[in-house]
Design brief:
This protein is 26% helix and 19% strand. The chain starts with 6 loop residues before the first strand and ends in a 5-residue tail after the last helix. A hairpin with a 3-residue loop joins strand 5 and strand 6. Strands 1, 2, 3, 4, 5, 6 and 16 form a 7-stranded mixed sheet that branches. A 5-stranded parallel sheet has the order 8-14-9-10-11, with helices on one face. Strands 7-15 form a two-stranded antiparallel sheet. It is an alpha/beta fold. It folds into 2 domains: 194 residues, 3-Layer(bba) Sandwich (FAD/NAD(P)-binding domain), CATH 3.50.50.60; 109 residues, FAD/NAD(P)-binding domain (3-Layer(bba) Sandwich), CATH 3.50.50. It is built from 9 helices and 16 strands.
Length: 359
């Protein structure tokens, strides 16, 4: 039976940058909506990331629609500055956000979508899943076989070097996260071993030209799913491979004494085992092995074998009125970046306004 009190024409699941940008666009279009956010405050997912984290893009290219990112446009915002910006954004736009509302189920019931949190049930005609791609920590199963005296932590839970035990550190995963954390630990006086393939690096000239404008042009207009190079980058990211280094140079890693080692393939006698047969004695392991998607709470037949939703630029054609926002390469390489999500939100808002006429 329909619960009229908790009915909204549109419900946005997720109150991060994607959900807030979507709310802004719907407000402009005079569409009634509600944003359901799992955390107790806006920007919480950013505040929980490691202390020294900075955005890949500078402030000039890190704005959501309608509000410029404050401060030096050439600077790279910290994670706390991002969180504060999101709070201000939601307040300025007077977005309707329900906090402490983690969605446990999304399904179709009759002509509407049914959304259930721990304490309430909602109905809507159209739903946008804006929870992003970084949902569950990914750690190999054999990590449980490591000696219990080795401190293990995933990058998603790492804050700073004080969390670790005394001694050497093995960082598994040499993408941007692994490289930046390894460099931080090395500068803090730790012996650091970095395991993972060389992912390359963004040329400094590319990042500097036009105050980052050239890189941003490529990320939004060239590295798209419609271009061969964009499809290659998308396939690599979807397969779980890290993108090229942005903030640091590969030479910085070796210059600070970080030792690059082969891939970690398992354990032997409780120690990490490399694919060259060597066991590594370390006191700490930091898993920079990324995240995996978890859309198990969506009870609809809309997913590919790898867990990604089957969509066209965010619209699920097999489920009318259902959209995703903030997915990798939803339109381009910039789709998961703060400065790029607004373009995707604007397109989805257009489809929402056209509903139910839109296919």
């Amino acid at each position: 039976m329909s619960n009229k009190q908790n009915y909204y024409p549109v419900i946005i699941i997720g109150g991060g940058q994607a959900g807030l940008a979507m709310g802004w666009e719907l407000s402009k279009a005079k569409k009634e909506f509600l944003i359901l956010e799992a955390a107790s405050r806006i920007g919480e997912s950013w505040r929980k990331r490691w202390d020294s984290l900075r955005l890949f893009s500078n402030a000039k290219h890190s704005s959501l629609p309608g509000l410029s990112f404050p401060g030096d446009p050439r600077g790279f915002p910290t994670k706390d500055q991002v969180a504060d910006y999101l709070v201000e954004y939601a307040e300025r736009a007077q977005l309707s956000v329900k906090l402490n509302a983690r969605v446990e189920s999304l399904k179709r019931e009759g002509s509407r979508y049914s959304i259930t949190t721990r304490s309430e049930r909602y109905e809507c005609d159209q739903a946008i899943v804006a929870t992003g791609p970084y949902q569950k920590l990914r750690v190999p199963l054999w990590a449980a076989d490591l000696d219990p005296r080795i401190t293990q932590i995933h990058a998603g839970e790492y804050r700073n070097p004080s969390q670790l035990a005394d001694g050497d550190v093995l960082v598994v995963g040499a993408g941007n996260t692994g490289a930046e954390i390894a460099l931080e630990l090395s500068k803090a006086g730790r012996q650091v071993w970095l395991s993972g393939r060389d992912v390359g690096q963004i040329p400094q000239l590319l990042r500097r030209l036009g105050n980052g404008g050239l890189f941003w042009f490529l990320a939004t207009r060239v590295f798209t799913k419609s271009s061969p190079i964009g499809r290659r980058i998308h396939s690599s990211l979807r397969a779980g491979h890290g993108g090229p280094l942005v903030h640091i140079r590969s030479s910085e890693l070796t210059d600070t004494g970080i030792e690059r080692i082969p891939r970690v393939v398992g354990t032997r006698d409780g120690l990490p085992l490399l694919d060259n047969g060597r066991s590594l004695e370390v006191a700490n392991v930091i898993w920079c092995t990324g995240f995996r998607l978890d859309f198990s709470w969506i009870h609809l037949p809309i997913f590919a074998d790898d867990g990604y939703p089957i969509h066209t630029r965010g619209r699920v054609l097999s489920a009318r009125g259902l959209y995703f926002l903030g997915l990798p390469f939803q339109q381009s390489m910039s789709s998961t970046l703060i400065g790029g999500v607004g373009r995707d939100a604007k397109l989805i808002a257009k489809w929402i306004v056209e509903f139910p006429k839109a296919a």
